[in-house]
Amino acid sequence: MHRITNSISIDDSELEESFVRSSGPGGQNVNKVSSAVQLRFDARRSPSLPNDVAIRLMKLAGSKLTKEGVIVIVAQEYRDQSRNRAEARERLFDMIRQAAVKPTVRRETKVPKSEKKKRVEGKKRRSEIKAGRGKARWD
Known about the structure:
By secondary structure, the chain is α+β, with helices and mostly antiparallel strands. It has helices spanning 29-32, 51-61, 81-100, 113-131; strands at residues 2-3, 9-10, 15-20, 36-42, 70-75. It has a single domain (2-100), classed as Double Stranded RNA Binding Domain (2-Layer Sandwich). The protein is 39% helix and 17% strand. The strands form 2 sheets. The chain has a 3-stranded antiparallel sheet with strand order 3-4-5, with helices on one face. It is elongated.
């Protein structure tokens, strides 16, 4: 059981890990050892996540989300499997923590009449200055 926030905990059975050969550093070792981790988490059907958190998580996942609602995270930065595994899990848990924060609702505000009046008066003053720059006319 992994505790993400005070109200969200995810069981190990919800995480599916597969190990594949990674690209990158490792020399001959890279051809022999499957050190990269593919972590799969079914966000759509997870009983641990509240519905609103699951929806925000799927939006946050972006290209990591499959059509079935499964988040796939690939970690292959390190040469050993255990560090890649920890990295993949931490990236998933960070994403869930971000999704758990409710966005603040934006309240529309009106521009005060005094500010509108100041703006119009400033424009009038500026137009008078510019109008005074024209050629002198002798009437």
